[in-house]
Automatic annotation (TrEMBL):
GO biological process terms, semicolon-separated: L-serine biosynthetic process
Record Pfam families: 2-Hacid_dh (PF00389), 2-Hacid_dh_C (PF02826), ACT (PF01842), PGDH_inter (PF19304)
Protein name: D-3-phosphoglycerate dehydrogenase
Protein source organism: Sphingomonas kaistensis
MF terms in GO: NAD binding; phosphoglycerate dehydrogenase activity
Domain D-isomer specific 2-hydroxyacid dehydrogenase catalytic: 5-313
Domain D-isomer specific 2-hydroxyacid dehydrogenase NAD-binding: 107-281
Length: 526
């Protein structure tokens, strides 16, 4: 059967041309409402999008034939990845095609802020010739604070260094070696806020980065700072930014991205010192040609040959190995995710051991899945293909160990993370050679399915704790699905892994932390 692809956002015509050349039927239908899209999506095997189409769980419910979503660009926050994965839909992006262009937009906005270009242009074209109104600042010798030093952030850094700026960066995954190589100084967020004359954001929007420039953070900035956001809306508290511009704490702000897009109204509009562009970061001819060609090639390879490149939710695999490795990779990714969520940026290295039946398999995809799970907590664009390279770039020491002998389990994957405070180890097995199960968490034996929303709780083993935990969750309206307990020794440290039906908010986490005997509470999602 001839595959059919729908291009639902404006894309360079080369994408459609490639699909047709490769024998794929293609329709370009843009500007549809979610309901209109839902009515037609069932006819397609591939969906090629940019940021306007929202591939929600609701839309995917109608996508009965969809096999692949191709994002001609980087950010996939408009795609419900868990929903796509649950429906067996591969989500691919083009992680590098528009990075230079977006970095250039950030630099353009930095210049626009420094010299008030939009206001000066409007005033001049209004016939005012206000030469004395527009006093600018020089960029040379100023400090640029980079929040996020990944692909785009590091290109911005190289351009800023060319402008003779000093660059400081906050990025938990930036290794000292990489910082040295980039010629920038790695600092903590507080230090960056204190020192930067300009701040530019280049992180994905995650639970850790949402509101990273909060009201409190803005209050800690150097007075007169200028801020640029070409990454994602939601990284800055927009109401607080408006107040900071009004008070003069922030001298200028340029936003390409907004919490709600399209942003057709905002309290920031009209504020002196505020500049905006309508999510234009990736909008150059060059970048659009790059991402259109790349996405069409990747999607065609997948639909016609089964080849997988730059998939966010699926490892690249050959057809023969795939069936045997699949459950191991699911287990490995869950173990990596568990470590990433509990240990955060403390992980300096990982050792991945396979034991028993697992030792007979190709270990690379298992390692890739651990790393993708671990680093997926911090970057949206990490996948099986780029996880090992990213790990290397970030100075993460990765070891693979193979034990042919069987231990307590016929097959086992053990992941040990090294952190500044010591090694932390988790392990899992496969039940019935297919169902991943956690069997050891930081030296405590448990038996848990890592799935959905969960809580990792460390507490002092004492009577009454389980009751008070159940009551606290009940009061918060959170239903417990399963409960797994383990402890090092009676009366010592106990660990609970609780599966819950709904996500746990930071407020509920704070309430649980306040329960007697609780040492640590981390919300998890798998
Ligand atoms: N405005 C636009 O049109 C465009 C926007 N973007 C957006 O730009 C952003 C960056 O893209 P890339 O550089 O390609 O991504 P990347 O994944 O290469 O880099 C992101 C960096 O953020 C860092 N990071 C993650 N959590 C952090 C935290 N809590 N604090 C500080 N740093 C943290 C990561 O370690 C990583 O180095 C993405 O959100 C992407 O969607 C990308 C292209 C165009
Ligand atoms: O690639 C990205 O992450 C972008 O934000 C670009 O968005 P766009 O393709 O221009 O709608």
């Amino acid at each position: 059967m001839t595959p059919r692809v729908l291009i639902s956002d404006k894309m360079d015509p080369r994408a459609a041309a490639i699909f047709r050349e490769r024998g794929i039927e293609v329709d370009e239908i843009t500007g549809k409402t979610p309901d209109e899209l839902a009515a037609i999506i069932g006819d397609y095997h591939g969906l090629a999008i940019r940021s306007s189409t929202k591939a929600t769980a609701r839309l995917l419910d109608h996508a009965t034939n969809l096999k692949v979503i191709g994002r001609a660009g980087i950010g996939v926050d408009n795609v419900d990845i868990p929903a796509a994965t649950a429906r067996g839909i591969v989500v691919m992006n083009t992680p590098f095609g528009n990075s230079i262009t977006t970095a250039e937009h950030a630099i353009a906005l930095m210049f626009a802020l420094a010299r008030q270009l939009p206001e000066a242009d409007a005033s001049t074209q209004a016939g005012k010739w206000e030469k004395n109104r527009f006093m600018g600042v020089e960029l040379t010798a100023k400090t640029l604070g980079l929040i996020g030093a990944g692909n785009i952030g590091s290109i911005v850094a190289s351009r800023a260094l060319g402008l003779k700026m000093k660059v400081v960066a906050f990025d938990p995954f930036l290794s000292p070696e990489r910082a040295l190589e980039l010629g920038i100084e790695k600092v903590e967020l507080d230090e960056l806020l204190k020192r930067a004359d300009f701040i530019t954001l280049h992180t994905p929007l995650t639970d850790q980065t949402r509101g990273i420039l909060s009201r409190e953070a803005l209050a800690r900035t150097k007075k007169g700072v200028r801020i640029i956001n070409c990454a994602r809306g939601g990284l800055i508290d927009e109401a607080a930014l408006k107040d900071a511009l009004d008070s003069g704490q922030v001298a200028g702000a340029a936003l390409d991205v907004f919490e709600t897009e399209p942003a057709t109204a905002s309290p920031l509009f009209g504020t002196p010192g505020f500049i905006s562009t309508p999510h234009l970061g990736a909008s150059t001819t060059e970048a659009q040609v790059n991402v259109a060609i790349q996405v069409a090639e990747q999607m065609s390879d997948f639909l016609l040959l089964g080849g997988v490149t730059n998939a966010i939710n699926m490892p690249s695999l050959s057809a023969e190995e795939a069936p045997r490795l699949k459950p191991y990779m699911a287990l490995a990714e869950k173990l990596g995710k568990l470590l990433g969520q509990v240990l955060g940026d403390q992980v300096r290295g990982v050792s991945i051991e396979v034991e028993g039946a697992a030792a007979a398999l190709n270990q690379k995809p298992i390692t890739g899945a651990v790393l993708a799970g671990l680093m997926g907590t911090y970057s949206q664009t990490v996948n099986m293909v780029n996880a090992p390279i990213l790990a290397k770039e970030r100075g993460l020491d990765v070891k693979e160990v193979r034990h042919e002998r069987e231990g307590d389990y016929h097959t086992l994957v053990r992941v040990t993370a090294s952190t500044p405070t010591g090694d932390r180890c988790v392990a899992g097995t496969l039940f019935g050679n297919s169902a991943p199960r956690l069997v050891d968490i930081f030296g405590v034996a448990v038996e848990a399915d890592l799935a959905g929303h969960m809580l990792y709780i460390v507490n002092n083993d004492a009577p009454g704790f389980i009751g008070s935990l159940g009551t606290a969750l009940g009061e918060a309206g959170i239903n417990i699905a399963t409960f797994n307990l383990g402890r090092r020794a009676a009366g010592g440290e106990a660990v609970a892994l609780v599966a819950v039906d709904d996500p746990v908010t930071p407020e509920v986490v704070a309430r649980l932390c306040a329960l007697e005997g609780v040492r640590e509470v981390v919300p998890l999602s798998f």
